[in-house]
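User: Could you go from structure to sequence for me? I need the amino acid at each position, not a summary. Structure tokens:
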């Protein structure tokens, strides 16, 4: 079971989905039993050399009371510090259509990161499609391989959900409520926004801060996803011998990774509208960021897989051959003019369109800076073409910029690979909060 907070009552399952810390290593389960709630800590998770003891107790009363009581010891306990080992090693695992990517970070001084290692393993085509895990065995094999190849020893993992499978909603609730009261309130509100039965849903929330229009109120971010989608990812990680402790949303993870970079822009990036464009294998993900908030988000079905298909058609290669020759730039003379350039023009057009959509569907009329990421961002000539067609200053981002680089990392290769690792890096950062 996912190591989040998970209480089951009359089939209402709750899973801690976002925002976690050391306390997340505790999971618990609530079952109803003749008017009493049996409360069992499922936990016994290996934690360094320690085992977390399993506790059991019984509470009579209503579910709501039980939840109120239950969250308290959870919040009060920080297991990391209890065992003198805060932020135990954790890997960020990005499971996407073309590959599984892994990143492990450590802390290099206060608020600074060190890239310990990163690696990727390709996935067979169709193993992950539209963000769904279609073949658990193939994907968990790839996770096992990437873990081994990377040389990490971390057994804890942070995973991401594709944004299209998560419903997020900001709601306003009265301020001054305890977290426990909020929890009850959020669940009541959630049913209005979620088009599935609550028993099929994993739910979590986070208080963002005071509401803009009513300082008495607070803005709360609610996130919900189909339980089966969480369970598929958990199954993949567990089958590969890992313990998933954090489940985030891919676009949130990518944003966390670029937030570090945006503050390095002139004037700390304040009041700047930054377009983050990730061109992957199947999908181009567009997020518009302003002062740490996502103001617009969209996915377009465009990616490097199309270029690979063009190569397959043009040169009669297998998909795998085409993919490897594309990356190695090992194709006949006519390739640039006949195949690559038209693809790059299409890519630039997709970006231009994405910006037009942003202008027509929001009150905003400008983009100040374009950050290009995803595996395709490194294709030679793309960033210049995008800057030329959109007339916006554009650069390729590395999520590891400004980080210390560990001795196991080959820096030259990192420069080529880094832009595809935004999500994996953002997930790995969750080791620290
Ligand atoms: N050096 C390179 N040169 C050209 N193309 C590359 C290079 N590196 C990666 N790519 C392409 O980038 C794409 C993979 O990017 P990325 O890893 O961001 O995608 P993904 O996250 O698996 O896909 P999606 O987000 O669409 O599910 C592939 O089409 C791959 O061929
Ligand atoms: Mg991706």
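Assistant: Here is the amino acid at each position, in order:
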């Amino acid at each position: 079971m996912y190591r989040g907070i998970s209480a089951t009552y009359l089939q209402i399952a709750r899973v801690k989905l976002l925002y976690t810390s050391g306390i997340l290593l505790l999971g618990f389960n609530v079952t109803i039993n003749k008017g009493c709630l049996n409360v069992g800590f499922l936990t016994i998770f290996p934690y360094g050399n320690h085992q977390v003891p399993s506790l059991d107790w019984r509470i009579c009363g209503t579910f709501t009371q039980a939840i109120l009581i239950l969250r308290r010891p959870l919040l009060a306990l920080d297991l990391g510090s209890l065992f003198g080992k805060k932020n135990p090693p954790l890997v960020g695992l990005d499971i996407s259509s073309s590959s599984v990517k892994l990143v492990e970070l450590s802390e290099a001084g206060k608020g600074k990161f060190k890239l310990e290692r990163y690696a990727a393993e390709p996935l067979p085509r169709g193993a992950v499609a539209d963000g769904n895990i279609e073949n658990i065995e193939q994907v968990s094999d790839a996770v096992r391989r990437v873990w081994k190849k990377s040389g990490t020893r971390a057994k804890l993992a942070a995973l991401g959900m594709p944004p299209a499978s998560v419903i997020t909603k900001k709601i306003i609730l009265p301020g001054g409520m305890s977290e426990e009261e909020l929890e009850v309130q959020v669940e009541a509100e959630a049913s209005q926004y979620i088009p599935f039965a609550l028993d099929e849903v994993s739910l979590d929330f986070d208080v963002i801060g005071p509401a803009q229009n009513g300082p008495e109120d607070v803005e709360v971010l609610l996130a919900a996803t189909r339980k089966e989608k969480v369970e598929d990812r958990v199954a993949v990680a567990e089958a590969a011998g890992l313990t998933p402790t954090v489940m985030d949303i891919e676009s949130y993870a990518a944003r966390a990774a670029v937030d570090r970079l945006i503050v390095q822009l002139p004037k700390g990036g304040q009041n700047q509208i930054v377009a983050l464009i990730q061109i992957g294998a199947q999908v181009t993900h567009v997020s518009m960021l302003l002062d740490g908030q996502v103001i617009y988000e969209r996915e377009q079905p465009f990616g490097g897989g199309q270029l690979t298909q063009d190569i397959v058609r043009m040169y009669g290669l297998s998909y795998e051959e085409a993919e490897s020759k594309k990356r190695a730039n090992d194709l006949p003379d006519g390739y640039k003019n006949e195949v690559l350039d038209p693809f790059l023009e299409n890519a630039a057009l997709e970006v231009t369109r994405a910006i037009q959509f942003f202008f027509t569907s929001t009150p905003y009329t400008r983009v100040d800076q374009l950050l290009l990421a995803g595996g395709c961002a490194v294709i030679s000539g793309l960033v210049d073409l995008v800057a030329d067609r959109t007339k916006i200053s554009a650069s390729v981002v590395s999520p590891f910029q400004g980080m210390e680089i560990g001795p196991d990392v080959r820096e030259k290769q990192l420069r080529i690979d880094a832009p595809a690792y935004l999500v994996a890096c953002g997930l790995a950062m969750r080791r620290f909060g």
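One structural detail worth keeping in mind: The CA atoms of residues 283 and 301 lie 5 Å apart.
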